[in-house]
């Protein structure tokens, strides 16, 4: 299918605008731009959708693990034996006890609903890369220090070193009724996970301090589990789930966040289908421009046939013209998409400045920044799809040109 020098010369001549061919050249240019925008839109949207899923998974799993084991009633009393069994299960990389309870926090008259988490020292240490203020190392058992999310700190007006009061409505009983338990904690560190719901509500403290606040004794709320592969967490924890049947429930990240990730999967497929239509429309532009070119060059085609040009040569010439338009549009669209993704955050800020609208509200979008993660396989599929559609669009006009009868065309010339 390689072109001979003669065929390439004719194809190149037809691809460049000539006298009286400005309209055909304009249509061909529109076709190239349409393919470029279609490919760029697909690359940008699919990369952003992949980034959403990856960032949500990384941030959610980074704080909650791949699965949790929780007893019926919310309290694990014999958790040491269960923890040991989980830690020795093949495929489990980490397992740690956890306490979690929604409570209230107050500071200078401000009240916010919070989620108190009691973590081990190693789990609290994992917050160090997310620290935006204070020292995570100061969060030790008995230190009366806690770490809170950045959005919660903003809402309460709390800074590192301030004393935050945690209120537990299930306090001590007195002759006058139940008195809520109020304990003041010094804010030792402020962290930012990047997920709005976490940064807006979490208060992290050592497990012994959480047990004292929640009056749970030595029991814990759940066991957090991390495995080697989050996608196979169900199979990895199947033996644990069977052994704890009737005692505790094993819930993985897919179940906990099922609605969120299913919605992302459906939206991802829908966006791919809808944006593929843009590429299809661009391909129809290539088809129309080639048909116009064949009609305009009918006399030239007839002369080429009389000079010895074969049907195969004409077929290859017009296929090459249309395919080059599609290939250039695909290549430029790919580069445009990658450049847009690289500068995506400044572009979002620029649009916000121009429109005066907050396009990326973390309370709605879950994440604090527009994410992106390009999949080479997916990008390859997008490019191949655009090239294949471009090739198919050239077949009809190329066959029409190859079937031109020079006798009929030149009879009255």
Produce a short descriptive summary.
The chain is of the alpha+beta class and 413 residues long. The protein has 17 helices and ten strands.
Task: Indicate the topology.
Layout: H1 5-15, H2 22-64, E1 67-71, H3 79-87, E2 92-107, E3 110-119, H4 121-125, E4 131-134, E5 145-149, H5 150-156, E6 163-174, E7 177-191, H6 196-199, E8 202-206, H7 207-214, E9 222-227, H8 233-236, H9 238-243, E10 248-252, H10 253-256, H11 258-296, H12 298-306, H13 311-342, H14 344-355, H15 362-365, H16 376-402, H17 406-410
Parallel strand pairs: 3-8, 5-7
Antiparallel strand pairs: 1-9, 1-10, 2-3, 2-6, 2-9, 4-7, 5-8, 6-7
Helix pairs in contact: 1-13, 2-11, 2-13, 2-16, 11-13, 11-16, 13-16
Question: What can you see in these coordinates?
Answer:
There is one protein chain. The two termini are 33 Å apart. The chain has 413 residues and is α+β, with helices and mostly antiparallel strands. Strand 6 (163-174) and strand 7 form a beta hairpin. The chain has helices spanning 5-15, 22-64, 79-87, 121-125, 150-156, 196-199, 207-214, 233-236, 238-243, 253-256, 258-296, 298-306, 311-342, 344-355, 362-365, 376-402, 406-410; strands spanning 67-71, 92-107, 110-119, 131-134, 145-149, 163-174, 177-191, 202-206, 222-227, 248-252.
């Amino acid at each position: 299918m390689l072109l001979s020098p003669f065929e390439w010369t004719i194809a190149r001549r037809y691809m460049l605008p000539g006298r009286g061919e400005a309209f055909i050249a304009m249509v061909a240019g529109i076709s190239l731009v349409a393919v470029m925008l279609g490919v760029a839109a697909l690359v940008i949207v699919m990369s952003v959708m992949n980034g959403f899923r990856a960032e949500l998974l990384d941030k959610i799993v980074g704080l909650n693990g791949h699965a949790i084991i929780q007893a019926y009633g919310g309290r694990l009393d014999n958790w040491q034996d269960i923890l040991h069994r989980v830690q020795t299960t093949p495929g489990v990389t980490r397992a740690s006890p956890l306490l979690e309870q929604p409570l209230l926090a107050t500071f200078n008259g401000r009240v916010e609903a919070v989620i108190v988490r009691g973590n081990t020292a190693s789990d609290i240490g994992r917050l160090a890369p997310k620290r935006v203020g204070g020292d995570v190392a100061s969060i030790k058992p008995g230190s009366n220090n806690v770490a809170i999310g950045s959005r919660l700190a903003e809402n309460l007006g709390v800074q590192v070193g301030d004393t935050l009061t945690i209120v537990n409505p299930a306090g001590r009983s007195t002759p006058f009724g139940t008195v809520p338990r109020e304990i003041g904690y010094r804010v030792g560190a402020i962290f930012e996970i990047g997920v709005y719901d976490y940064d807006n509500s979490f208060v992290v403290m050592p497990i012994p301090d959480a047990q004292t606040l929640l009056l749970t004794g030595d029991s814990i709320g759940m066991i957090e589990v991390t495995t080697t592969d989050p996608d196979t967490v169900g199979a990895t924890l199947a033996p644990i789930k069977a052994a704890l049947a009737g005692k505790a429930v094993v819930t993985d990240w897919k179940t906990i966040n099922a609605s969120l990730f299913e919605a992302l999967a459906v939206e991802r497929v829908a966006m791919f289908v809808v944006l593929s239509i843009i590429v299809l429309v661009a391909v129809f532009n290539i088809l129309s421009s080639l048909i116009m070119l064949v009609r305009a060059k009918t006399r030239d085609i007839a002369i080429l046939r009389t000079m010895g040009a074969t049907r195969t040569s004409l077929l290859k010439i017009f296929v090459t013209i249309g395919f080059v338009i599609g290939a250039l549009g695909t290549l430029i669209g790919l580069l445009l998409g990658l450049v847009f993704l690289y500068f995506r955050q400044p572009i979002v800020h620029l649009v916000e400045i121009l429109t005066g609208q907050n396009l990326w509200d973390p309370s709605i979008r879950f994440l604090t920044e527009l994410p992106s993660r390009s999949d080479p396989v997916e990008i390859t599929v997008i490019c191949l799809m655009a090239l294949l559609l471009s090739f198919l669009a050239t077949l009809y006009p190329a066959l029409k040109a190859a079937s031109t009868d020079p006798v009929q065309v030149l009879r009255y010339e």
